[in-house]
């Protein structure tokens, strides 16, 4: 009970990672990621890289939650800086764990599954951190919508990969979104989290709503592309990708 069946185990053994990307920032970041992984000793386990990045991201996000548990209070600027730094470290380590696995010949479907499981947890904490940084709790319906939008995008990408067997990144996707979140934290560092309560000239909405509105446009494009594949493709995971829990944040390899 609860164990994988023989066909599922067979698919797990046959699984091959497949990725397609048109991301604007990934080609630029690949230089940094490829250099970074070369600095890692061959004895360093890829899963240790994965869990280290996740822990850093969770701790820095929970720091904001500590100072603003309902996302309504102003948070210290240094905490916003640490959250931006933690997200950058997480992004970098998440990008190189697979590269390290290939360097050391230890890549496996279960390692990818572990990576994706950590990514699914990270999505929750990244969303909470940015809500605290802009004090989105003062607009609870906007906060709920923002968090649900992030989770929906995450699992729709998983669904698309389940159907097609290939993980696809659009021009504005995960890397761009992560840098957008870092930029939000850094704006809070420079101007304080109270800045986000000011009104946008002429639009008469607080600045804290602007990132969500921009996200809606990006989400609409991403959902259209995902569902176009989901509704057209037939079958489930040609490369055995049905074992992947949440490949949204997985990076293409060098």
Automatic annotation (TrEMBL):
It is an enzyme of class 2 (transferase). The keyword Ion transport does not apply. It is a multi-pass membrane protein. It holds the Pfam family CDP-OH_P_transf. It is found in: Membrane. It comes from Chionoecetes opilio (Atlantic snow crab). The chain crosses the membrane at residues 48-68, 75-93, 139-158, 179-198, 204-224. Belongs to the CDP-alcohol phosphatidyltransferase class-I family. One of its GO terms (cellular component) is Golgi apparatus. One of its GO terms (biological process) is phosphatidylethanolamine biosynthetic process. Pathway: Phospholipid metabolism; phosphatidylcholine biosynthesis; phosphatidylcholine from phosphocholine: step 2/2. It catalyses: 1-hexadecanoyl-2-(9Z-octadecenoyl)-sn-glycerol + CDP-choline = 1-hexadecanoyl-2-(9Z-octadecenoyl)-sn-glycero-3-phosphocholine + CMP + H(+); CDP-choline + a 1,2-diacyl-sn-glycerol = a 1,2-diacyl-sn-glycero-3-phosphocholine + CMP + H(+); 1,2-dioctanoyl-sn-glycerol + CDP-choline = 1,2-dioctanoyl-sn-glycero-3-phosphocholine + CMP + H(+); 1-hexadecanoyl-2-(4Z,7Z,10Z,13Z,16Z,19Z-docosahexaenoyl)-sn-glycerol + CDP-choline = 1-hexadecanoyl-2-(4Z,7Z,10Z,13Z,16Z,19Z-docosahexaenoyl)-sn-glycero-3-phosphocholine + CMP + H(+). InterPro entries: CDP-OH_P_trans, CDP-OH_PTrfase_TM_dom, CDP_ALCOHOL_P_TRANSF_CS, CHOPT. This is diacylglycerol cholinephosphotransferase. Keywords: Lipid biosynthesis, Lipid metabolism, Membrane, Phospholipid biosynthesis, Phospholipid metabolism, Transferase, Transmembrane, Transmembrane helix. Its EC number is 2.7.8.2. Its main location: membrane. GO terms for molecular function: diacylglycerol cholinephosphotransferase activity; ethanolaminephosphotransferase activity.
